[in-house]
């Protein structure tokens, strides 16, 4: 087989592969639908945890009382991932924060944007490019009264071709001035899977 023929065969293969890839069907699914592709932590677990935590917190009598006449300021701490999986715990806290803000009961201090805000304030004050009559004055940030934080842990067991994973998520609301835990909640999830005979 000469060189020209070999190159023609390779080019044809590449084009065929490209067509197969770009021609694959893509469709949208329901983001709220139950996801059960694997036993690993997934979108349905995230949604269930966020809904459970927010519902429990908003209906807890002392929390109902503290939010009757005002909107307390909360800071969200990170969730400690104690599982063996790589889980985007920031997505969990983001969803919980969104639900609590949209409830109209709380305000939040976003610690993830503190550095960006500090840079912007320094720019307004020090760059010489901002009209100081319109520049934001420093020292006006409101301190958080409460902190939300949590833990995500799991227990995994495998036996007889079956796999079982138990997730436990705990969340607590703590008074920053007194250190008192004002509320705590937890959500448990158990998932089971049967391993394929062919190891797939």
TrEMBL record:
Q: Which organism is it from?
A: Acinetobacter towneri
Lineage of the source organism?
Bacteria, Pseudomonadati, Pseudomonadota, Gammaproteobacteria, Moraxellales
Extract the signal peptide range. 1-22
What is any one of the record's Gene Ontology cellular component terms? periplasmic side of cell outer membrane
Protein's GO biological process: peptidoglycan biosynthetic process
InterPro entries listed in its UniProt record: LpoB
Record has Signal as a keyword: yes
Question: What is this protein's record name?
Answer: Penicillin-binding protein activator LpoB
Q: What's a Pfam family in this record?
A: LpoB
MF (Gene Ontology) = enzyme regulator activity
Keywords assigned by UniProt, alphabetized: Signal
- The lineage's top-level taxon is Bacteria
């Amino acid at each position: 087989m000469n060189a020209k023929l070999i190159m023609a065969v390779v080019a044809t293969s590449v084009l065929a592969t490209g067509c197969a890839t770009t021609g694959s069907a893509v469709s949208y699914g329901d983001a709220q639908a139950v996801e059960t592709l694997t036993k690993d932590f997934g979108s349905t677990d995230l949604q269930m945890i966020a809904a459970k935590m927010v519902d429990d917190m908003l209906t807890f009598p002392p929390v109902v009382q503290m939010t009757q006449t005002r909107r307390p300021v909360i800071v969200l701490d990170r969730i400690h991932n104690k599982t063996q999986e790589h889980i985007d715990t920031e997505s969990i806290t983001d969803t919980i924060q969104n639900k609590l803000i949209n409830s109209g009961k709380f305000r939040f201090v976003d610690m993830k944007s503190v550095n960006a805000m500090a840079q912007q304030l320094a720019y307004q004050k020090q760059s010489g490019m901002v009209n100081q009559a319109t520049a934001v004055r420093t020292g006006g940030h409101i301190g958080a009264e409460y902190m939300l934080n949590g833990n995500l842990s799991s227990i995994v067991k495998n036996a007889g071709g079956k796999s079982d994973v138990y997730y436990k998520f705990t969340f607590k609301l703590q008074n920053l001035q007194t250190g008192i835990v004002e509320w705590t909640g937890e959500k448990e999830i158990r998932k089971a899977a049967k391993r394929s005979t062919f190891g797939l």
